[in-house]
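Hi support team,

I submitted a single chain yesterday and got back a structure, but I'm not sure I'm reading the token output correctly. Could someone confirm the output below corresponds to the sequence I sent? I've pasted both exactly as they appear in my results page.

Thanks,
R.
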Amino acid sequence: MPSYSVELLDGEERGIRVECDEHGEWTEFPPDRRSGSLYCEGCGRELEIGLHTEEWRDLGELC
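Hi R., thanks for writing in. Yes, this is the structure output for that exact sequence:
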């Protein structure tokens, strides 16, 4: 099973970079995007991504 890295980018408008660790395929999402996809040709898979950077909460705190 492939693994992916998620990185918050530095700078005034901090976007998000998602990368397939095995094949090096990556894409960057601007901070105003709420969803997107990454297609890795090496894996032959498309990863659908939901971006929630401002409303983070610990999932252990769910009622």
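A quick pointer for reading it: The beta strands are 4-8, 16-20, 26-29, 35-40, 45-50. Let us know if anything else looks off.

Best,
Support desk
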